[in-house]
Amino acid sequence: DGGITQSPKYLFRKEGQNVTLSCEQNLNHDAMYWYRQDPGQGLRLIYYSQIVNDFQKGDIAEGYSVSREKKESFPLTVTSAQKNPTAFYLCASSIDGLAGADTQYFGPGTRLTVL
Amino acid sequence: DAKTTQPPSMDCAEGRAANLPCNHSTISGNEYVYWYRQIHSQGPQYIIHGLKNNETNEMASLIITEDRKSSTLILPHATLRDTAVYYCIRSNDYKLSFGAGTTVTVRA
Q1: Which residue of B has its CA nearest to A4?
Q2: How many whole angstroms separate alpha carbon A23 and alpha carbon A92?
Q3: pLDDT for residue A86
Q4: Is the dihedral of CA A21, A35, A38, A85 positive or negative?
């Protein structure tokens, strides 16, 4: 069963702690993405990666870090430098992330609450 | 800047067709029109996309005007499970700009 998995579905952390969100895909996609969604708003791009060992900042990368050591995995770390980390985090993947019709498919999301 | 305009909300009767409009008057020639939907607290679900021609799949139909300045997503027989926020997005690369979308409520 191919798809994108994110774990956990709900995550609680104390203020000042770093936390890592998991994203795994078995679609053999080269490109992966992280988005953030706040209540009642659309998605905003945090980071994206078009190939292993390479990634680029999106629109709101401050306070976040990523790694792409394996094609199927793209973990996101929310650091203590992120001022408003409580949000719904979504991971997506696409075939190559290049120009043209490259459809992104999304995981179920992780809801992070910082107490 | 989402670069598309959608009505904030609309209601639809169960079993009837739902027609969701989207304005993208400044779309460039190589940008595709994508539609996604998001059911509460879930990840966005891809519905359909198109460039110039009308498109149909098992979920919906996409009608793009000849000048490409607007499009309509058609859900042919809406069910209660189609209640969601629907996003119309224009893109020609990795960047998807999600706006507020249209909240569609299907009523029995």
Answers
A1: B43
A2: 8
A3: 95
A4: positive
For the residues A6-26, what does the mean pLDDT come to?
Answer: 94
Q: Which residue, among B79, B92, B99, B80, has the nearest Cα to B36 in the 3D structure?
A: B99
β-sheet with B32-38: strand ranges across: B9-13, B102-107, B84-91, B32-38, B45-50
**pLDDT tier at A100, thresholds 50, 70, 90:** confident
Average pLDDT, stretch B77-105?
A: 92
* Six-digit token string for A45: 């791009």
Contacting residues of A for B44, CB less than 8 Å apart: 43, 90, 106
Neighbours of A94 (CB within 10 A): 22
Burial class (CB in 10 A: 0-12, 13-18, 19+), A10: exposed
Cα angle, residue B104 at apex, residues B103 and B108 outer, rounded to 5°: 145
> How near does any CA of chain A get to the CA of B40, in Å?
10
- Band of residue A99 on the pLDDT scale cut at 50, 70, 90: confident
3-state per-residue secondary structure call for A6-69: EECCEEEECCCCCEEEEEEECCCCCEEEEEEECCCCCEEEEEEEEECCEEEECCCCCCEEECCC
CB atoms B96 and A101 under 8 Å: no
Cβ atoms within 10 Å of B80's Cβ, excluding its own? 10
For the segment A26-74, what is each residue's pLDDT rounded down to a tens digit? 999 999 999 999 988 889 999 999 999 999 999 999 999 999 999 999 9
Average pLDDT, chain B: 93
